[in-house]
């Protein structure tokens, strides 16, 4: 008994109609009819045939494995039939099949449209598909569609608009695409086989000795090595050129060279003020801070060094210059007016000028070097010693602390009693004069 007969007999035994089976299995009615009529070639594909047969058999509670075995047996027996004497090639069969499938789909669309009395313009207006694409679908000319994916979408919209079975038409369209793909693969494999058969009788040409030596790897490696060597040589030359072009930077002059005249070999060398220093000609403080870079090297000799004549203070009768070696507190009073009070900066020279006197008070005598009227007085004291010096026209004076005067107590006198009076006629006795007795 055939597969279709078993299905129909079992359905009739269960008193089921095809509509009931279609609703229960979700298989279209015409597919069920094709299964019971053994028209398996009308189904979209072999995979769908097996799926429909398995679902239908399970619903009817039949042995699905037996049904599949019978289906495979029928397929083998049909393939064992004698082939025609001159069978068409796979390429021509695939080409005819794909073209026939697309033509079949187009004829079905066109006949349904004409049956409904619709024109191409009506279809374009309602489906929003351009007219030339509609004509390509009805003629089966898939090559004029933008792409297979877009063609599938247009076909789905067109079939839905005409009320056709969209799923069946799309499955048929997929079969056509698969057949076209097989056709192209067959053509490609044939061309490859032809090319390989032609190359079999041809021996491969061996590369020459020179070509094997000068390969692409050789050129790339040589270029990298040459680049690295050139870069190294350029770097060495550039560094040597930079070192050769450097000039030694001038050393900043010391404070003694800036402010003092140095006695060298019996000759008097006079130094000029640092450029940019401006001194006031008024007989008051000439405060100018000279920017000094480097370390101050104070002159430790006790010999008198003569100051160079400074244009701003040459007419002042009292000139005092102080060079700070360390930080210390200092107060300078010029003609009764305090012109400086605070901490001095090491390496800085302070110039003062007055007409009557200049008073200098510091908390660290070892931090200052004093020049009075261009004469080096040296360092005035030891570390941490508090000193005060007064410079006037008569020279440098060291003020002595004034001792407060103490009052001397005035002497007190003691009064002694006098003697009593003597009678008349008696001799007068002298009375001693009281003398003051100092109180201790």
Textual characterization of the structure:
- Helix content is 43%, strand content 13%.
- The chain contains 13 helices and eleven strands.
- Residues 79-95, 260-312 and 418-429 have low confidence and may be disordered.
- The protein has a five-stranded antiparallel beta sheet, with no helix packed on it. Strands 6-3-8-9 form a four-stranded antiparallel beta sheet, with no helix packed on it. Strands 1-2 form a two-stranded antiparallel ribbon.
- It has three domains: 3-79, Orthogonal Bundle (434 Repressor (Amino-terminal Domain)); 90-183, Orthogonal Bundle (434 Repressor (Amino-terminal Domain)); 255-397, no CATH class.
The N- and C-terminal alpha carbons lie at a distance of 169 Å
Oligomer category = single chain
Q: Quick one: overall form?
A: elongated
Helical percent range?
A: 40-55%
Strand fraction band? 5-15%
How is this structure best summarized?
The protein is of the alpha+beta class and 440 residues long. It has 3 domains: 77 residues, 434 Repressor (Amino-terminal Domain), CATH 1.10.260; 94 residues, 434 Repressor (Amino-terminal Domain) (Orthogonal Bundle), CATH 1.10.260.40; 143 residues, no CATH class.
For the structure shown, list the relevant keywords.
440 residues, alpha+beta, 434 Repressor (Amino-terminal Domain), 3 domains, five-stranded antiparallel beta sheet, four-stranded antiparallel beta sheet, 13 helices, 11 strands, elongated
């Amino acid at each position: 008994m055939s597969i279709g007969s078993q299905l129909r007999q079992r359905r009739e035994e269960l008193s089921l109609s095809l509509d009931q089976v279609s609703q229960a299995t979700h298989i279209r009615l015409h597919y069920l009819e094709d299964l019971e009529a053994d028209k398996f070639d009308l189904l979209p594909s072999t995979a769908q045939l097996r799926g429909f047969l398995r679902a239908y058999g399970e619903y009817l509670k039949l042995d699905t494995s037996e049904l599949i075995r019978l289906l495979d047996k029928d397929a083998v027996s049909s393939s064992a039939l004698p082939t025609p004497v001159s069978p068409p090639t796979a390429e021509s069969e695939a080409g005819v099949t794909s073209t026939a499938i697309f033509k079949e789909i187009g004829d079905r669309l066109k006949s349904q449209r004409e049956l409904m009395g619709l024109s191409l313009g009506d279809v374009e207006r309602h489906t929003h598909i351009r007219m030339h694409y509609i004509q390509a679908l009805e003629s089966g000319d898939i090559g004029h569609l933008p792409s297979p994916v877009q063609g599938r979408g247009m076909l789905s919209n067109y079939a839905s608009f005409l009320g056709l079975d969209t799923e069946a038409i799309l499955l048929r369209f997929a079969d056509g695409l698969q057949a076209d793909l097989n056709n192209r693969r067959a053509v490609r494999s044939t061309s490859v086989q032809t090319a390989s058969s032609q190359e079999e009788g041809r021996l491969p040409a061996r590369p020459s000795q020179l070509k094997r030596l000068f390969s692409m790897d050789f050129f790339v490696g040589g270029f990298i090595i040459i680049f690295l060597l050139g870069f190294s040589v350029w770097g060495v030359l550039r560094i040597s050129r930079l070192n050769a072009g450097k000039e030694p930077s001038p050393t900043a002059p010391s404070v003694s060279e800036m402010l003092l005249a140095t006695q060298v070999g019996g000759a008097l060398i006079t130094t000029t003020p640092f450029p940019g220093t401006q001194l006031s000609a008024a007989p008051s403080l000439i405060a100018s801070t000279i920017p000094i870079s480097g370390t101050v090297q104070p002159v430790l000799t006790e010999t008198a060094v003569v100051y160079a004549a400074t244009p701003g203070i040459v007419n002042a009768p009292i000139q005092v210059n102080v060079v700070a070696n360390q930080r210390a507190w200092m107060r300078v009073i010029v003609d009764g007016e305090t012109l400086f009070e605070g901490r001095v900066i090491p390496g800085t020279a302070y110039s003062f000028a007055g007409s009557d006197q200049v008073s200098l008070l510091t908390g660290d005598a070892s931090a200052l070097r004093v020049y009075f009227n261009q004469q080096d007085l040296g360092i005035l004291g030891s570390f941490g010693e508090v000193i005060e010096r007064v410079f006037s026209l008569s020279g440098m004076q060291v003020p002595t602390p004034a001792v407060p005067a103490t009052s001397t107590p005035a002497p007190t006198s003691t009064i002694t009693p006098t003697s009593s009076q003597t009678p008349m006629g008696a001799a007068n006795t002298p009375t001693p004069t009281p003398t003051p007795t100092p109180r201790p």
